[in-house]
Amino acid sequence: WRRAGGPGLRYAEGSMSADGSESKVLPLALTALGVVYGDIGTSPLYAMRECFFGPHAVPPTPDNILGVLSLIIYSLLLVISLKYVAIVMRADNHGEGGILALTALLPPREGASRTPLLVLLGIFGAALLYGDGMITPAITVLSAIEGLNVATPVFESSVVPITVAILIGVFAIQRHGTDRVGRMFGPIMLVWFGVLAALGLWTLWPQPIVLSAVDPRHGIRFLFEHGWHGVVVLGAVFLVVTGGEALYADMGHFGRRPIRLAWFALVLPALLLNYFGQGALLLTRPDAASNPFFMMSPGWLLLPLVALATAAAIIASQALISGAFSLTRQAVQLGYSPRLSIDHTSSAEAGQVYVPSVNWLLAICTIAIVVGFGSSSSLAAAYGIAVTLTMIITALLLHTVAVERWRWPVAAALGGTGLFLTIDLTFFVANAVKIAQGGWLPLAIGGLLFTLMTTWKTGRRVVAARLSARSEPLDAFLDRVSDHPPARVPGTAVFMTAQPKGTPPALAHNLRYNKVLHEHVVTLLVKTMPWPYVDATERLTIKDLGDGVYELTLYYGFMEDADVPAALRLAKLEGLPIDEEDTTYFLGRETLIPTKSPGMALWREHLFVLMARNAMRATGFFRLPPERVVELGVQVEL
């Protein structure tokens, strides 16, 4: 039996296969095109247009066009290439990325808890990503369908209904998973990026002067000449980098090398060429500012281009929706969300999951956003501010990880953080002016979800404290059992508990009211570790407490699902004397009562009770056989 102490920093090797085999890099890079780059790959549909046709646009003069192009070029190079691809992706939590995974990397302080402010920032950043998951499908699909208006104004009144119909279809197929359709995503996006590059080359050929925008002085001159208005235009320029967080969040599916290869070999060149082409078109035809992307297309290619753009928009939507599912799973496992029904849609990829409640909540909100805003130009005002805040939070968390985990010199870490924060804060200021025009929406969504996540985390901590305060120490309980042996009945009783110390309430209640103990008693604690996977050899620890009582602790990573019966079979192989056919699971069913006692505000206690009532039952979450589960009521005053 393993000594009680828990696993070390080990994880399932299979979770990082993406970086291992040379033969897998190219296929994974192709697949990453569809999942990782869907969001940033559809930015050409609307980003340049918002600079010259949106509510804060500037006239499409040659100087302005070169200035905006210069800002776009260096935004892609500094924010995506340098910050995310070169540096942030190094902050992997044993292969997994994303803001919650980065938060879990924060080192402990004083041997105990993590830095509270940074953890709260990480949770808020995760909450903001849900808002991004609602707005991205709306703006990308709307932008693609609006291409029909370039062909003929007949479709103008049909844009919103067509968009809603497509979105309903997108959310309806989520239950089937992305395992099958995911294989088509990469090739479609390969064609998409090829078309982006070809359109750009075709259009910039007569106007090679736009290539001079690589000189950063054009961007600097643009900002100085336009002053505050130039900063505001940065809010539209920022739309070219809104997919940056997706690079990091989806790293666990593909690994660093395939994502970097796809970016530098195809995505970055295609995006730059297309933006150069749009700039060249505006130099020739300033009136094309209303929709420069689709006006680059020859007439015969327009309808096929709309169809391809719609497919790319759907893929971009799929990536954000799948990301919301993965984020929810992490939040549940890390204790920031109630237990939810989570379905696995692939037998091969553990990360492909479907969360029905989150899917339909996203669907309702996304469709309401489309109907409420009506056009991608209006929606662009709501897009960006949530992502800028998330990027700022990522930079702050990264600084702490670089100094305290990577052991970077403080001066070097401050230099990198200072550069990234300067860029991110400038973009935030540029987007802040759009709060009244729609930017309040993702902030409201993020604030609401942040409140829910912190309420759940705090509420569970309060419940644990209340139960621990009134529970009998396990040693004292065992002494009492030894001094006054109760009747013992055949079989094994597994008492699940969320408290590492004290007698499980269900165990104490069973002895108090039923006056018996089973021949074998197992107290079971399931712990989620701050890394994604736990090696099978470190799955459990067993401790013999005497008198047929055993203490079993199971360890899971935040990307794993707890399967208690499977773990008990493993424990049996390790020597735990249990009979699977004669095992009963005892759970404590808590009745929560809001009070004015210290802990949480009364309104938050009522909110916590509401969330607890709608949480998935522990029986299903831990995959317990329902016919062998006994629930004993426990009343807890918050």
Question: What features would you describe in this structure?
Answer:
By secondary structure, this protein is α/β, with parallel strands linked by helices. It is built from 26 helices and eight strands. Helix 4 runs antiparallel to helix 14 and helix 10 crosses helix 11 (228-237). The model is unreliable at 1-6 and 8-20 (pLDDT under 50).
Provide key terms for this protein.
alpha/beta; 26 helices; two-stranded antiparallel ribbon; 6-stranded mixed β-sheet; 8 strands; 638 residues
Spans with pLDDT under 50 lasting ≥5 residues? 1-6, 8-20
Shape: elongated
- The secondary structure category is alpha/beta
Query: How big a fraction of the residues is strand?
Result: 5-15%
- Give the end-to-end Cα distance, rounded to a whole number of Å: 38 Å
Largest sheet: 6 strands, mixed
Strand order of the largest sheet: 5-6-4-3-7-8
Tally of DSSP helical segments? 26
- Rg result: 27 Å
Helix % is 55-70%
Mean pLDDT: 84
Total strands: the figure is: 8
